[in-house]
């Protein structure tokens, strides 16, 4: 499986989502939410001055965007953003990745970026469809990429500094119960993740310059090397069998904004994506 280039000249692409025939993502360090087609034609959807990260959509098609520094979830109304959920009173650190489930509930991570390589635990936050926010879990070890299974009953979260993927059962009200280790990773550093139809998870591992497929329990089935650190991944395309790999040479804004090393590559895999996002 040899990845091929879709788009380059980016700073630090993150939060990829396949939606309406295009890959949407945040180029965090320059503040742009971008959509790109399989032909490589890219469009800036909106600029978020306080840095965009996780993306998702409400059932009515409204785009939600995590605003990192403001600790908010924004909604895009036409060409302008408005506050959908304010997390500033709940999140100890800046907010990061997000998954929005089929009912419009958003799960948002809070991450101690300044504390790396020994970050303090942060909250996983729940924003209801009407914008009401609460703490879903108070102490994840750098919660990052997250997915919801097709039945809407399980949330899986990458704990980047926890060496594992963690699962929760989603209660009827959206709250999370039954926290458990879904897959120990044996030294893996999971960032963005994507779920497939066999119930396995692809995780981007920037420390290993790779994207890795793992089953529940920790069995690794596939590993795709990347030319530079891989920070996020997404299954999309017409049949959801295109694995998009988002890479950059460094997470440092000073370097990426100047050098624009960020790339999106893609490779075909056998098992299509499933669930949310």
Can you tell me about this structure?
This protein is mainly β and 277 residues long. It has a single domain (4-268), classed as Neuraminidase (6 Propeller). It has 1 helix and 24 strands. The chain has one helix at 253-259, and strands at 4-10, 13-19, 22-27, 32-36, 42-47, 52-57, 63-67, 72-77, 80-86, 95-100, 106-110, 122-127, 133-140, 143-148, 154-159, 164-170, 176-184, 193-195, 201-205, 210-214, 220-225, 230-236, 242-247, 262-268. It has a 4-stranded antiparallel beta sheet with strand order 1-24-23-22, covered by helices on one side. Strands 2-3-4-5 form a 4-stranded antiparallel beta sheet, with no helix packed on it. It has a 4-stranded antiparallel beta sheet with strand order 6-7-8-9, with no helix packed on it. The chain is globular, with a radius of gyration of 17 Å. The mean pLDDT is 97.
| Total domains | 1
Q: Structural class, please?
A: mainly beta
CATH topology: Neuraminidase
Strand order, sheet with most strands: 1-24-23-22
Unreliable segments of 5+ consecutive residues: none
Beta-strand residue percentage: over 45%
User: How many beta strands in the DSSP annotation?
Assistant: 24
CATH architecture: 6 Propeller
> What is the number of helices?
1
What's the quick description here?
This protein has 277 residues and is mostly beta strands. It is 3% helix and 53% strand.
Keywords:
four-stranded antiparallel sheet; mainly beta; 24 strands; 277 residues; Neuraminidase; globular; single chain; 1 helix
């Amino acid at each position: 499986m040899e990845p091929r280039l879709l788009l380059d000249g980016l700073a630090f692409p993150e939060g990829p989502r396949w939606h309406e025939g295009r890959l949407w993502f945040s180029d965090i360090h320059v503040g742009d939410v971008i959509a790109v087609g399989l032909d490589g034609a890219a469009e800036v959807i909106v600029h978020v001055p306080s840095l965009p990260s996780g993306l998702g959509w409400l059932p009515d098609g409204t785009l939600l965007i995590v605003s990192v520094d403001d600790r908010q979830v924004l909604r895009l109304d036409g060409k302008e953003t408005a506050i959908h959920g304010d997390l500033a009173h709940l999140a100890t650190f800046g907010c990061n990745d997000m998954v929005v489930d089929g009912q419009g509930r958003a799960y948002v991570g809070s991450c101690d970026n300044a504390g790396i390589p020994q970050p303090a635990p942060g909250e996983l936050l729940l924003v209801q469809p009407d914008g009401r926010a609460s703490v879903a879990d108070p102490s994840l070890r750098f919660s990052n990429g997250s997915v919801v299974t097709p039945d809407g009953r399980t949330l899986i979260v990458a704990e980047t500094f926890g060496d594992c993927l963690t699962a929760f059962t989603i209660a009827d009200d959206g709250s999370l119960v039954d926290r458990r280790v879904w897959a120990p990773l044996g030294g893996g550093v999971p960032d963005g993740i994507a779920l497939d139809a066999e119930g396995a998870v692809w995780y981007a591992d920037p420390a290993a310059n790779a994207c890795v497929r793992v089953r529940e329990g920790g069995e690794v089935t596939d590993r795709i090397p990347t030319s530079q650190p891989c920070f996020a991944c997404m299954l999309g395309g017409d049949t959801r069998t295109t694995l998009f790999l988002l890479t950059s040479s460094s997470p440092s804004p000073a370097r990426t904004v100047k050098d624009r090393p960020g790339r999106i590559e893609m490779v075909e895999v056998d098992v299509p994506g499933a669930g949310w996002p």
